[in-house]
Amino acid sequence: MRRTTILAVSLGLCAALTATLPATADTPDAPAARATAAEDTAEAVWLDARTVAWPRAAQTTSARLLAPAQEAERQEAAKIRPGSATRALRLAPGKLTPAQLKKFPHLAAYDAWRVDPRDRRLAAEVLRGRLVAQQLAADGTVTAATAVQTAGVLDDLYADAAQRRALGATFDRAGRPTLSVWAPTARRVALDLDGRTVPMRRDAASGVWTVTGERAWKDREYAYDVTVYAPEAGRTVTNTVTDPYAVALTTDSRRSLVTDLDDPKLAPPGWKNLRKPKAVPLRDAQIQELHVRDFSASDPTNAHPGTYRAFTDRSSDGARHLRRLADAGTTHVHLLPVFDIATIPEKDAKAPDCDLPALPADSPRQQECVTASAAEDAYNWGYDPLHYTVPEGSYATDPEGPGRTREFREMVGSLNRDGLGVVMDVVYNHTAASGQADTSVLDRIVPGYYQRLLADGSVANSTCCANTAPENAMMGRLVVDSVVTWAKQYKVDGFRFDLMGHHPKANMVAVRKALDALTPARDGVDGKRIILYGEGWTFGEVADDARFVQASQANMAGTGIATFSDRARDAVRGGGPFDEDPGVQGFASGLYTDPNDSPANGTRAEQRARLLHYQDLIKVGLTGNLADYRLTDSTGRRTTGAGVDYNGAPAGYAERPGDALAYADAHDNETLFDALAFKLPAGTPAADRARMQILAMATATLSQGPALSQAGTDRLRSKSLDRNSYDSGDWFNALHWDCRQGNGFGRGLPPAADNQDKWEYAKPLLTTVSVGCAEIEASAAAHRDLLTLRATEPAFSLRTTAEVQRALSFPLSGPEETPGVVTMRLADLVVVLNATPDTQDQRLTSATGTRYALHPVQARGSDPVVKDAAYDRRTGTFTVPARTVAVFRAG
């Protein structure tokens, strides 16, 4: 997930309120209390039908919830007039129960207010209009007033019944559709069917509105007209909005379509009996991360550039490359978001109006031109969801109606036939917008429910957009329902969850359980073979389990859902993407052993100490980030994976191999080649840059557990030093399968918004660093050798911590450890990662007398340098050339 705002619209809740209000329920002529202004906040939290949580103001003796019986449009100061009809729910001081504190831990310091039992019958009605909470002193003076957060009470009143109701469009055996939408606070919902208004009926128990139509409704356009009180607007509005459960849309998401995904006309040839690739356990997954446009937009051999159908052009250079990776051991292609995206025009997208190739390699003009058309071009990573369960239309040759469904299925089928599973990158943690914005879907139907609200009632945007609240029952259900639909209807083989730490662990476990229940006989897919992984970072308003037990790295251990491990990644690369000086080095970028001239690396002693600690992080990564794995660290101390420090956190957090996913680069931040360009000494030869790239990738490929690499990393892919290319167009994101087109380096200074502070470092590199076909093809071939080696050696697929403990060791740790070299013994294998610019000898006395030879895959492989690796049986010494990963096998 990128760390730059895509689009965020803050949800302001209630306007200032000054009013004289009655003190008892349903008594419009009760004596008036003195008014006080309520800020544009919603600080009271209605937890359930019985309880409101709200800090108690000084001198408060009682409280109440108030709703005008007849709303007025917002006027100056948004006054409720003296004597106007209201409904009031009386509140008495109380305490939060243990169950409430467990469900809402972030409200532990709040006071509880109990709803008078006589007034609880009013809850459902007052939730459908403007709602104000007041605290009062003994003399009736209002001591505090605020709007109210209502997600908790909506779950309490409606969620159990709503969970049992189908949503979206469903079809009976006769083909008649029923359309259903959850809108418990709406005054009215009507179906807008091709411009004709059709009334819908509300179920009081669930808050679901439904209408059943005729067979002729199939494939027709629709939307919902939802009349609902919108706190942001301060009045009741009627929103015409597409269906959150839509499975098909018209171009640019203007309207939903009454579509049956079981319709045979939506299935490409062979879809019903599609043979899936051989299932692999998560611990063995080798994943290639790929953006749909990147795959083919710059490939002149592809007949359908930039589209789903590009994957069906089996004669293209890109398709041939993926097949070579699959033959070598890659198991899955991970597609960056392919659901309906808010910010990409699905037709008539604009292209940069410049002669970009004619400009100098270090010019700022390329980025100026690309940025000028970025909002209207066909490119975005897509982390700005609009509809979660519809394929993105800009990737379809026909984005209208069923075209995108059929073409998405063609893509899945083609990749599956090439032996590759398809993983979807899904983004349920935020929406592109919230409130009454035109690009909001969820919040225009149930305002204030689907987004996570902060203490003042504003929408949290720690994910860089409007955060969703999957801890709320119906948002959590939407996540599960959407994933199951993709699995059943599109035969997707895996899901990668963006910012998964912003989900409750319980939500992710529910996803896993729902998928595990899918069977080939009933559902057409085996859900147990579907892999799940995600970003388990912990930050923002949910950090450290503040609101719920998060789906974070440590918490997800043992669940069968993997999390990205940043430990070895940082050690391999060195520093971080936000370093003021990008020259901070790491294991694979020359720290201590091949220093650059950056003062940010510290003294020689500091470099050596940091490098050895980085090697400890890499060792833990090679075990699969196991928390309980016992090892000797570089200082000679006996410890465990959890005992190795990673910025104040345990380096090891996994319970078993498969809990942590290893990687050296992904779409976020600079590509691995670009990071090494910043960090390796400026005069590093092209061949050595390529060798360091492969060595860096090997730390992930040869680890226990799954591994991921960004598409093109094996081909030295560059984005011209762009740290955040989410909206940098095809120009900076170009992915070349033909080495004669280059690797993307030197396409101009990267876009100013995220990179200008690094231009002084980038400019001299863009005109001096280069690689050619020799380096690109050698790198790709060497990576395939390592994939093959891993796939054919069972020792890289151990199941438990105990198995890893028995089979895997680091015999040269402690005082014997060589800075810049990691040596691992794994069953009958010895793996040496030599990141130094010199040949290195690694003597293992325990290996003396045992026959070892370079692994046959490397001995017969593409890299002539590794073939110079040698072993002396008499002394147990393994000799490995500079900047080389060598694997030896006993026997």
UniProtKB/TrEMBL annotation:
The organism's place on the tree of life at top rank: Bacteria
Record-annotated Glycoside hydrolase family 13 N-terminal domain positions: 167-246
Keywords from the named record: Signal
Domain called Pullulanase N2: residue spans: 41-156
Signal sequence, renumbered to the chain: 1-25
UniProt keyword Transcription present: no
Renumbered residue ranges of the record's region Disordered: 296-315
Gene3D superfamilies with a match to the protein in the record: Glycosidases, Golgi alpha-mannosidase II, Immunoglobulins, Rab geranylgeranyltransferase alpha-subunit, insert domain
Domain annotation Alpha-1,6-glucosidases pullulanase-type C-terminal: ranges: 741-888
InterPro entries (alphabetical): GH (IPR017853), Glyco_hydro_13_N (IPR004193), Glyco_hydro_b (IPR013780), Ig-like_fold (IPR013783), Ig_E-set (IPR014756), Pullul_strch (IPR011839), Pullul_strch_C (IPR024561), Pullulanase_N2 (IPR040671)
Family affiliation: Belongs to the glycosyl hydrolase 13 family.
Name this protein carries in UniProt: Pullulanase-type alpha-1,6-glucosidase
Lineage, broadest ranks: Bacteria, Bacillati, Actinomycetota, Actinomycetes, Kitasatosporales
Gene: pulA
